[in-house]
Amino acid sequence: MDRRQVLSGAGLIATAGAGAVALGTLTATRQGSSSDACISGNSFAAPNIISGGRELKMVTTWPKNFPGLGFSAERLSQRIAEMTDGQLKIKVFAAGELVPPFESFDAVSTGAADIYHGAEYYWQGKSKAFNFFTTVPFGMTAVETQAWIYHRGGQELWDELSGSFNIKPFMAANSGNQMAGWFNREIHTIDDFKGLKMRMPGLGGEVLRRLGASAIAIPGGEIFSSLQTGAIDATEWVGPWNDLAFGFYKVAKYYYYPGFHEPGSQLACGINLDVWHSLSKSQQAIFAQACAAENDFSLAEFAAENTKALRTLINDHGVQLRRVPDAILTEIGKLSGQVVREIAEEDDITKRVFESFIAARESGLESGAINVEPYLQARHLPFNY
Ligand code: CA
Asked: How far is the CA of 236 from the centre of ligand 1 (A)?
């Protein structure tokens, strides 16, 4: 590992899913990682600052230096400063530094902050439609989501939805497929979910409830102790990279996959519309392309880091990997569809987002079955390579 995470257990606060939100208790040191080199040579180069530049405030739902998603916000700021020769600088505030994490959306909507970096499903209290722009149970993979947003009308609907709150949204990071989570006992049949107490927020949690489980949306910082004391029997978090940092392997033995509830969590950047319109055409283009670059970069970072972390979990910590049986996934898939279709009835925009999302998902299923899945399976055929 070329970076070390130092995590102090207490103090992490609420999260609705993809990322932790902490108050400065999690620090990470980066030691010349290869990901730095991909951006600007050997390290983050200091931008060439020209006097008179403009500084915008970015609030985030991530703790300072949070691996993965927190890095994305910092890299976005760095890229934009470099590409504008310092004419457009973005000061990044970790969760709670300027506003509480879940008030980031309102802060940008009202202009108290200029930009947020977070997960759209955190704003589902504004409209259930926001769920679709992060992820829904048995939804789309990262690439399928990009296909929807870029090429199948997703961005236009997202602009309409967020625009009604005076915000312009962009894709700006993606965690890729998450894991189903950590269990302190094995899961064999659907009946094993009855009475199971599992930490799983959002729509995935609603699916679990319909299986007879107690889905609990406890704050990130309480997960470890809750597993330890038996207050919960299982938890989802993100994937090997982030889950290793939280140390769940110390209190739960079985690590299940695939993460049906978050198959490719899309993270987002939202900029106040008045601020957006005040940017020059070139600054707008730079901002949009910097977001797109970070979206790609972060997905690759998660893929690389998850592989390393998974090996560490298995080889160094004796974690037992388990696949969720197909019979259980089939039932979960059915219930996921029910939950997603129910929220589509909430209002007009959610209905239209749902319909567009479903069409894109069908398209992904259709082409994926021919030119993606067979190849991925074929790589596991018994040949020497
Ligand atoms: Ca998650």
From this structure: 6
Q: How far apart are CA 135 and CA 229, in angstroms?
A: 30
pTM: 0.85
Length of the chain: 385
Q: How confident is the model at residue 88 (pLDDT cuts 50, 70, 90)?
A: very high
Which pLDDT does position 219 carry in this prediction? Answer: 66
Distance from residue 80's CA to the centre of ligand 1 (Å): 28
- pLDDT band of 50, cuts 50, 70, 90: low
Measured in Å, residue 121 CA sits from the centre of ligand 1 at 11
How far does the centroid of ligand 1 lie from the alpha carbon of residue 154, in Å? Answer: 22
Going from the Cα of 175 to the center of ligand 1, the distance in angstroms, rounded, reads: 9
Distance 262 CA to ligand 1 centre (A): 6
Alpha-helix residue ranges (DSSP H) falling in the chain = 34-40, 69-83, 104-110, 142-151, 154-163, 202-210, 220-229, 240-246, 273-278, 281-317, 326-343, 348-371, 373-378
pLDDT, mean over the chain: 87
